[in-house]
Amino acid sequence: MMRKKQHGLKTFMVGLCSLFLILAGSGKLLAATAAEIDHNVDKALQELLHESPQARQLAKMAKGILVFPRIYKAGLIVGGQYGEGALRVNGHTVAYFKSVGASYGLQAGAQAYGYALFLMTDKALKYIINTNGWEIGVGPSIVVVDAGTAKNLTTTTAKDDIYAFVFSQKGLMAGLGLQGIKITPFHPDKTKK
Questions:
Q1: Which residues, 6+ apart, have CB-to-CB distance to 79 below 8 Å?
Q2: Where are the domains of the chain?
């Protein structure tokens, strides 16, 4: 009886992950309007800057900030994640991006989180704007700011191209990381249909 329940749960999770990956790949998972993305980015960035003194410091020096307010991740052996965000320069949205990732290995569960990339150099900003899709870990140097990194991070020690902050983690899933996530530009609808 227990094996049947476990097999049923595994089948359900594999099906859920497959549907998730199909929807994420087609861009239909969230399909938010530009106004919805901007609203969510405003809210997420405001919360991050309120909670993190390091993020506040970097925001003053950043050439741009790419914010993904909500990334949805699910997996059971095979996993996927998807979210939509906006690139802000001088407080204004200049472009919209999708964040998509797939993974395999020892993983199980579902989770939602957000992340922001603080683009500290003109080179990093130009790369993001002019590249028709890129993968985190390829291109400009990225440092993920965790509790240990945050202790030593100041405006004088910030020498890398991009600093990433992960925030608002909800749910339980092992193996959260940004490495290998593909970020591509897209044009959201202006209004809902």
A1: 17, 73, 102, 103, 104, 107, 173
A2: 2-186
Report pLDDT digits (tens) over 140-182.
888 888 755 555 555 555 578 899 998 877 655 555 566 668 9
Summarize pLDDT for 24-83 with one digit per residue, the tens: 444 445 568 999 999 999 999 999 999 999 899 999 999 999 999 999 888 776 778 899
In the numeric block, the tokens 């959201």 are attached to 188
pLDDT given at position 84: 96
- Which residue in this structure is represented by tokens 């028709």? 132
What distance in Å separates the CA atoms of residue 116 and residue 85, rounded to the nearest whole number?
9
**φ and ψ at 31, to 5 degrees?**
45, 50
How open is the CA angle 112-114-120, to the nearest 5 degrees?
A: 160
Is residue 18 within a helix (H) or strand (E), and if so which, with residue range? helix 2-26
* Whole-angstrom distance, CA of residue 184 vs CA of residue 192: 22
Looking from the CA of 85 toward its CB, the CA atoms found within 13 Å total 26
